[in-house]
Amino acid sequence: MLSEAEQRELDEILKQYPDKQSAVLAALYIVQRRQNYLTDDDMRDVAQALEMNITEVQALVGFYTLFRKEPTGKYMIQVCTDLPCALRGAEEFYHRLCERLGLPPEGGTTEDGLFTVEQVVCLAACDKAPVAQINLEYYENLTGEGMDAVIAGLRQESSEEVTGG
Ligand code: FES
């Protein structure tokens, strides 16, 4: 079941759509914020709220890479290593990032639970590679050192959230 706050947020969004089902992606984003990924119960909640079939909701979650079905780090770092980006050094960039975070070449989640790294296909920013999408934000024309600074900034942001600083 959606919490009161989630339902209020969804009600606001529903005002912009001619029919409930058009708001399914927005509804999934709202529910994903609970714990950074979507459980079967979460998908059922969305299906119920929008009077949809659970199978349709599950299919959408499976299709869009921004929806997660397993626990991930607080910051989900998706690096495009598709061919056009690979030609601009994205693979080396990706492997360096994994190394810096102590992750194996296939990516994964850091021990502190802060970062999950994965390779994705085209993020539609091919001319600005290496490019990464971190949660919903794009970081373009990245360098190894530039990414170190991004990681340091996110660590700082996260510790300030924890300490309230
Ligand atoms: S191929 Fe990487 S953003 Fe398009």
Care to describe what's here?
The protein is of the alpha+beta class. It folds into 2 domains: 60 residues, Orthogonal Bundle (Arc Repressor Mutant, subunit A); 89 residues, Glutaredoxin (3-Layer(aba) Sandwich). 45% of the residues lie in helices and 12% in strands. The chain is built from 7 helices and 5 strands, in the order ααααβααββββα. It has a 5-stranded mixed beta sheet with strand order 2-3-1-4-5, covered by helices on one side. A hairpin with a 5-residue loop joins β2 and β3. α1 runs antiparallel to α2 and α2 packs across α3. The radius of gyration is 18 Å and the shape is globular. The mean pLDDT is 94. Bound molecules: FE2/S2 (inorganic) cluster. FE2/S2 (inorganic) cluster binds next to α5.
Blueprint of the fold:
Elements: H1 4-14, H2 24-32, H3 40-49, H4 54-63, E1 75-80, H5 83-86, H6 90-100, E2 108-109, E3 115-120, E4 132-134, E5 137-139, H7 144-163
Parallel strand pairs: 1-3
Antiparallel strand pairs: 1-4, 2-3, 4-5
Helix pairs in contact: 1-2, 2-3, 3-4
The structure holds FE2/S2 (inorganic) cluster.
FE2/S2 (inorganic) cluster binds next to α5.
